[in-house]
Amino acid sequence: MKILLVSPKYPDTFWNFRHALKFISKKASSPPLGLLTLSSMLPIEWKRKLVDLNVHALKNDDILWADYVFIGAMSVQADSANAIIQRCKELKAKIVGGGPLFTSDPDPYMHLDHLVLGEAEITFPHFLADLIHKCPKKIYRSSKYAEMRLSPPPDYSLIKASSYAQLSIQFSRGCPYNCDFCQITALLGRKVRVKSSHQILHELSNIYDTGYRGNVFFVDDNFIGNRHLLKTSLLPDIIQWNRNLDHPFTFTTEASIDLAGDKELLGLMAEAGFEKVFVGIETPDELSLKECDKTLNIKYNLVDSVEVIQSSGIEVSAGFIVGFDSDSPSIFQRQIDFIQQSGIITAMVGLLNAPNRTPLYQRLKKEGRILQNSGGDNTDYSMNFIPRMNKELLLKGYQQILDGIYSSKAFYTRLKKFLTEFNPCATNKRHLNREGILALLRSVFYIGILSKGRVYYWKLFWWSLLRRPDMFPMAITYSIYGYHFRKVYRIGS
Q: Cα separation of 388 and 340, whole Å?
């Protein structure tokens, strides 16, 4: 049996870093971890091929080669996935769909040959067994959640690691919190399920064996969901493993704001090589936090919490949202002030959307306010429901926030504040390797010469080189990030 695994293309968004990747000669941010895991579940004698459209073009010969085309996609990849499906149909290829795009709303995809929904560890073996016996069903689904200790290691042999800015790994699934706009608990539940420390070290060793060195992203939706295991097993084991191999990897992940209240955990994460954590801050407005059931954030002084995490040597990136029913026109400047004051460099500000299967979607549907399904990208200036605030005012205020944090002057001010105060762990400090030197030279050309905001690039360049030379590589990296954000958000200077 010949299986073609296809990952659709991501649109130009905040998260794909397309405009930044060209500085370091990378094709994509991260590989499709779900498809790599799926590959490890296939019978060993079957032939398999991965085409990640973010790295390579999909050729007709690829499709014609395969007995089955497996498409794994997230909602934001829907347009590309639909185009792939159309091509496969025209070439009479058999198609299997799986992943969040198909699981969250399978109805539009009932014309596919097969749908394997939910967590692959549960449903995919049943599909495979039926396929081997030549009696596969149309749809496979289950309300059960996978036992992570039985999840196979991703098949990193399918990718060229050098094509990606970072590689990825997963320790846990599920989140103990239930924010009303978030689809995670609907898809993966509230019980945090984890792999063993042995599994993670094995997967890290597999990545190491590819020759890759750099950042590894733990894709967990809340990495700190099982603190006991982190403190007693996983983090001490990673610390020792990383030390034995002279620190080949740094790590990033996602966590809730209560990480700031656990200094022991922060210290272990920093020592293990975690250099950045994404936190869902959402809004400084308490009424809006109550509205979306993110009451955890109300218990913490958010600016102080960011400072605590960053003082441990771990940088905070964060998500912010506008468009809550409780939001007043003052929220736009309040968001700007919060982001500038906190010194959060990578601030993903999006418009509220309501993915189906979320409590927010159900409420808005009852109120007759849902317009369409969410496209999965809350940074593309779209909303899938009728907001309480006048939409024209909301969009104008949204653009005000983006201009207020990503225009060259505002971004320079925030970045300088961050670089002045931040002290990463010694093992996490960045150095100008060959890749970094190329990025530096390209940044001089694209940002320092061609950009309208080039004066702020040179201010930061000379300030960091003279005042914080140890942070100079980070200053260049984030100058490139700022370039990407201005491109995505269409900010002129």
A: 27
